[in-house]
Design goal:
homotrimer, 190 residues
Chain lengths: 190, 190, 190
């Protein structure tokens, strides 16, 4: 839901039509998981197998179009949703990688792709350089990589569910600190 | 063929070289079907299995480069080709989805992707915001969604071939009316 | 390595952050092979199955960030690496296509995609029209197509390893001549 809202609002800023706004919401929400599924050959991709996800996204998109200005007032709630979503997506991505026996390092990459690349697709479609790669934007992928690495390290020694919760909480905590104190990665000088 | 011509002309407007024009023609023609095939795991993707499609696209692209100005005189013919193609692509996309047992709602999305996302790839490669999502461009996806929905509803009660013809005719009719009367989806206000 | 460096430097020019530079290096290096694998259904994609490639790319990216100005002094070495890489990638792409029984014409396309589409993804992510399609840039895909065609023709009559070497040498030779004498494909006039 939070990812849909982010996509839908970016689309509205560029003054796209209704179909454009719904599409961008959709792509932002399912883009990361779709790229992951395609890369590991998990097809038909996850969102096609069950109507729940598409319907939630569609509903969220319609709410954004109808109550646009109102939804914006829930900035804090949206940020929390987005952060929990980021943690959840990262862990799910890693689990799918581990399930087919990939190297943990690759799985962390898969988790990061799941969490972050919906936004990359959104920015590509809207003709922007992806926020994910820009030095003036908040760190985002770095948070997934740290949380994901911790998950891969802890899962071998503690029960899966506890490792899951720790990773998600860690991702939320670091991201909140990063946003609060405006942590940025330095630009790479040429 | 019509999709190839659309891609090739967009590329010529940006003054790409021959290889660029042929590539853009190719991507516009097979992009939608390729994304569909990749999403449902129908690989190697369709255009790789048979040389007919690639050769037709290549031939069309070469004609565009050689007789560019002349081809433009057939505006009405091109529009008709494009419209019939849109209907056909949509129905084929839906059929591939139904064949592997996907939910009809997802199949309509697959049909729309097949019909429309070649143009999205074209616009992404040429560094434009996709026409498909813009409020100042004609409705395009909406036509596929309506035609596709009708197809999915009618196919259960009438023979497949009749349902096919109705859907394609409907897509053609709505699109012609939409272009004639300049129907637009409203922009989503922020 | 050469492809990683090309991606990393393009990212630095746009002043991306560290994560952005590493990501762009990664995408440029594995993008072409990934698109090929996804199109033919060879999943999980190649770079996920073995840590060697990702680690080499990561190391190269870190070197670029740390010693940026210094790396640039090796222009000639980089160009040679890039050219050999282009030839190698093209031949590998063709072999993967032939191995699953695709038409040689399609295999040449697959080889060209493997060699060139990492750079296309790089340019799409950085919000540029792909160099590959531009008339003011060196010919690049054309070299792959010529070398690939020769490979497909010779492989039937001479041993595979000799055909391989000839194709790679041919690609290197043509590319060097093309760069030396500034060969360009003409723009397609409209």
């Amino acid at each position: 839901m939070a990812f849909t809202i982010s996509g839908a609002f970016s689309a509205m800023q560029k003054r796209l039509d209704w179909f454009g706004v719904l599409s961008l919401g959709f792509v932002t929400a399912i883009g990361g998981g779709t790229i992951r599924d395609v890369l590991i050959g998990n097809t038909p991709v996850t969102w096609m197998r069950d109507m729940t996800t598409p319907l939630i996204i569609l509903g969220t998109g319609i709410i954004c179009i109808t109550f646009g200005r109102y939804v914006k007032n829930f900035k804090v709630a949206l940020f929390l949703f987005d952060t929990v979503g980021l943690g959840l997506f990262t862990v799910i991505g890693i689990q799918k990688g581990l399930a087919i026996g990939l190297n943990p390092g690759i799985c962390v990459a898969l988790g990061t792709i799941t969490g972050c690349f919906g936004g990359v697709l959104r920015d590509m479609l809207l003709n922007n350089i992806p926020d994910l790669f820009r030095k003036d934007k908040e760190i985002y992928a770095t948070v997934c990589i740290i949380g994901g690495t911790v998950y891969c390290l802890t899962i071998k020694i503690i029960p899966e569910q506890i490792a899951e919760s720790i990773a998600i909480l860690l991702i939320c905590a670091i991201r909140m600190l990063a946003v609060r104190f405006k942590w940025r990665l330095p630009a790479a000088r040429q």
